[in-house]
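User: Could you write out the 3D structure of this protein bound to oxa(dethia)-CoA? I've included everything you need below.
Assistant: Certainly. Input first, then the structure.
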Amino acid sequence: MSVRRAVAMGAGAALPERVVTNTELAASVDTTHDWIVERTGIHQRHIAADGQLTSDLATDAARRALAMAGMDVGDIDLIVLATATPDQTFPSTATRVQHNLGMKHGCAFDVQAVCSGFVYALTVATQFIETGKARGAVVIGAETFSRILDWSDRATCVLFGDGAGAVVLRGEDGTGTTDDRGVLSTELRSDGQHNTALYVDGGPSSTGVAGHLRMNGREVFKHAVRNLAEIGEAALATAGLTSDDVSWVIPHQANARIIASTAQKIGVPMERVIVTVQDHANTSAASIPLALDVAIRDGRIQPGDLLLLEAMGGGFTWGAAALRW
Ligand code: UT7
């Protein structure tokens, strides 16, 4: 039976030029390189330049993904952009990217699920493609978290970075088996009772200003490993797959310890996990497509590989996707 699949055609990424190492950070924050590495695995992060917006990073990532796909904006009719750090309260950052790309047709909108945003955006775009509502889509995760960090709070400011990643999807007919290329399953969850464990203490309707990120790190950590393992296994089961089928896990890059514990619970050895947290830190919605882009361009991910994407973030939200590249 022929089944419409959302097939990934290309990936792209964009990182601000400025790299801030742990040692550089320790000159202005009461922390050390060793503490950050031991607790998180982070060595450095990229920080956006003054005036460099989330939409600028997103546009560069989208252009690179379209170039890898060998497609242009005429081949897509949807942009779904995941961000918790939009350029403005409105209009959406996605519409700015649409304009930057010179695209005047189709539709563009943002989704907000913080660090799970890319998996949410991928799920939405997949639905559009599988139902025939879109022929092709650009799915973007883009953030400038440096703008919402409290740089006097050492427990959070050392953890995050800026960047963007994108994937281009195209609708293609598959056979309906797990051998098909494209998105084979997605699973999303949220539970709003935990929204004070990881949040921003501002917003248009509450304080009228953007606010700063606040986190109960231990609380998030505890939920992260359990939720990520559960959702990863659920996405595999929905597709009719097991951890033995997984070529690569591409996890949200928040903390190397969370990544390792989750991989162990799912039953995938670390040799098959893409880890970029040391270079990018936590870039929220951008972290999965950034890691994906690295592993495609360095040749680890090959056509036909089965990828398991999994992420968890504020809300709490969490999600996973099984995708044959
Ligand atoms: O992307 C969304 C998902 N977010 C996450 O997944 C983050 C999840 N949480 C974590 O990754 C970890 O909880 C952290 C990396 C945030 C913190 O690691 P931890 O092992 O849970 O440390 P902790 O918060 O329990 O703090 C341990 C100690 C504390 O000192 P005392 O109370 O033991 O004296 C902190 O004050 O480390 C201290 N500390 C620091 N020390 C040096 C906290 N931040 C720093 C710092 N440098 N930057």
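The pocket of oxa(dethia)-CoA is lined by residues 31, 35, 39-40, 115, 154-155, 158-159, 217-218, 220-221, 224, 254-255, 258, 282, 312-313 (CB under 6 Å).
User: Perfect, thank you.
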